């Protein structure tokens, strides 16, 4: 299957009008022609937490969102991307609940990483843990088995509760591979075209390592899952927040990857009014990437940009975002912080708020994203140039809620009337339709206070010029007859 080099939408199943049926309607009506590249539907499955990222199963759709009929219907006109959390599954899943009841006699016991699979005596060793890239204070949780009354410690990479809601899977076990196959086959039968391998970097647990993107073991797993996806004609998108060199290895391996460097570089370019670092980056990057500016988490910083940025300059940019209402996700492990203590994992905010709610700066950011090689994704809040939802953060205590607001149909109608949104939709349609984007990309020479990007295909051409002093953006392009036209964004 060939992915379409056009713009995709990212949305929760209930964020645009409340359910999948309404999303289907919007894609064919109010949003028609915008997201011809596809739609990434954030987890629509039954889940016990983390807004869908603690799934009970992938064989059902949460009835609050709709049914598989809705997914199949969307898939008839729009390529669908869904997440598969290959690293973990919900504590409330039928598989783990059976393990909680029966312990090692459960038919699903081998799905999970009990600690004796890591340490032979099942006793965790702190010096090993100190080397790991941690997402919680300790990477395991303790559970009491109902029938025996004994305690079992199982690996839990993620989760804010103790014990965690997200239970790690043992991807080496035959039963886990059988389960993953059943999920993929179900996706295929329901018109899913792309699967994002969420948290895939954490699937290998090996003593003496960080337990994150452990080489060469990770490639053995990726080989297996890629052969399964190829068999079912499903594209894969591994999601790995790591040093940029890891992303490049995945690209060389033949995977689509995320450009997690671009959001920071674009923000830095516009805030500092200099294109120098961005031009340097664009001169040498793989083209087989999905590009984004915003998402349901935050703007990546560490470890994605380690070695690419100075931490004092990054701290200044972080501080500006904090002044504009952002909050932060931080690195927990001292071993994985910068030498000077810089520990920002992600900046959590809407991209519009990060740019001080400046319409021209925001449209310039989107134009740059759309002109950079790759498949562009637009997060639903970003589509509406949404502002930081500080009230929701205060209400829930969850920093990521700053950029996860839901819109009713009435809200959507109001948002679509906003001038900045209308300008963005015009830009999206241009990106979807001009033939030059299927051709050759180049970064044109320019002073630091400008950015000039160009695409050329036979007789077709389009170029973007951004004035970083004024944030004014101009596109020059050939029309179908070859005449040169200009378009101020």
What would you say this structure looks like, in words?
Keywords: Glycosyltransferase, Transferase. Its EC number is 2.4.1.7. It comes from Paenibacillus cucumis (ex Kampfer et al. 2016). This is Sucrose phosphorylase. Belongs to the glycosyl hydrolase 13 family. Sucrose phosphorylase subfamily. The protein contains 16 helices and 20 strands. By secondary structure, the protein is an alpha/beta fold. Strands 9-8-3-2-1-15-11-10 form an 8-stranded parallel sheet. The protein has a 5-stranded antiparallel sheet with strand order 16-17-18-19-20, with helices on one face. The longest helix is centred in the middle third of the chain and has 16 residues, at 174-189. The mean pLDDT is 96.
What labels describe this entry?
single chain; 489 residues; 8-stranded parallel β-sheet
Q: Describe the sheet with the most strands.
A: 8 strands, parallel
Estimate what percentage of residues fall within beta strands.
15-25%
Instruction: Please state the oligomeric state of the protein chains shown.
Output: single chain
Number of separate strands = 20
What is the spatial order of strands in the main beta sheet?
Answer: 9-8-3-2-1-15-11-10
Protein name: Sucrose phosphorylase
Family: Belongs to the glycosyl hydrolase 13 family. Sucrose phosphorylase subfamily.
Enzyme class: transferase
EC number: 2.4.1.7
């Amino acid at each position: 299957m060939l992915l379409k080099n056009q713009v995709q939408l990212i949305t929760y199943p209930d964020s645009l009008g409340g359910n999948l049926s309404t999303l289907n309607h919007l894609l064919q009506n109010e949003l028609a022609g915008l997201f011809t590249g596809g739609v990434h539907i954030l987890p629509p499955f039954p889940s016990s937490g983390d807004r869908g990222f603690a799934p009970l199963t992938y064989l059902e759709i949460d009835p609050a969102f709709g049914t598989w009929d809705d997914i199949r219907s969307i898939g008839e006109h729009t390529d669908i991307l869904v997440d598969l959390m290959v690293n973990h599954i919900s504590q409330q899943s039928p598989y783990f609940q059976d393990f909680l009841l029966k312990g090692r006699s459960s038919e699903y016991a081998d799905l999970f990483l009990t600690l004796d699979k890591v340490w032979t005596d099942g006793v965790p060793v702190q010096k090993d843990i100190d080397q790991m890239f941690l997402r919680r204070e300790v990477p395991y949780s303790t559970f009491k088995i109902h029938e025996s009354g004994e305690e079992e410690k199982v690996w839990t990479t993620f989760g804010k509760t103790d014990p965690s809601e997200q239970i790690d899977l043992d991807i080496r076990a035959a039963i886990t591979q059988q389960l993953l196959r059943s999920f993929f086959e179900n996706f295929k039968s329901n018109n899913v075209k792309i699967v994002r391998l969420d948290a895939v970097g954490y699937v290998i647990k090996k003593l003496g390592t960080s337990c994150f993107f452990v080489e060469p073991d990770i490639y053995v797993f990726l080989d297996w899952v890629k052969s399964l996806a190829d068999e079912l004609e499903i594209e894969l998108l591994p999601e790995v927040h790591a040093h940029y060199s890891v992303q490049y290895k995945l690209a060389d391996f033949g995977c689509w990857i995320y450009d997690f460097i671009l959001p920071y570089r674009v923000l830095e370019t516009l805030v500092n009014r200099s294109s120098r670092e961005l031009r340097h980056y664009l001169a040498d990057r793989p083209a087989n990437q999905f590009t984004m500016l915003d998402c349901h988490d935050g703007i990546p910083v560490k470890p994605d940009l380690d070695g690419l940025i100075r931490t004092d300059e990054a701290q200044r940019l972080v501080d500006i975002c904090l002044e504009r209402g952002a909050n932060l996700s931080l690195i927990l492990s001292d071993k994985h912080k910068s030498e000077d203590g810089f520990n920002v994992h992600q900046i959590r905010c809407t991209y519009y708020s990060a740019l001080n709610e400046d319409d021209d700066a925001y449209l310039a950011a989107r134009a740059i994203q759309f002109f950079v090689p790759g498949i562009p994704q637009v997060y639903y809040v970003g589509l509406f140039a949404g502002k930081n939802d500080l009230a929701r953060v205060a209400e829930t205590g969850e920093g990521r809620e700053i950029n996860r607001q839901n819109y009713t149909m009435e809200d959507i109608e109001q948002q679509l009337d906003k001038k900045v949104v209308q300008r963005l939709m015009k830009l999206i349609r241009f990106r979807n339709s001009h033939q030059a984007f299927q051709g050759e990309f180049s970064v044109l020479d320019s002073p630091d206070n400008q950015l000039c990007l160009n695409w050329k295909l036979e007789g077709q051409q389009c170029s973007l010029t951004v004035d970083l002093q004024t944030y004014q953006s101009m596109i020059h392009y050939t029309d179908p007859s070859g005449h040169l036209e200009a378009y101020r964004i």
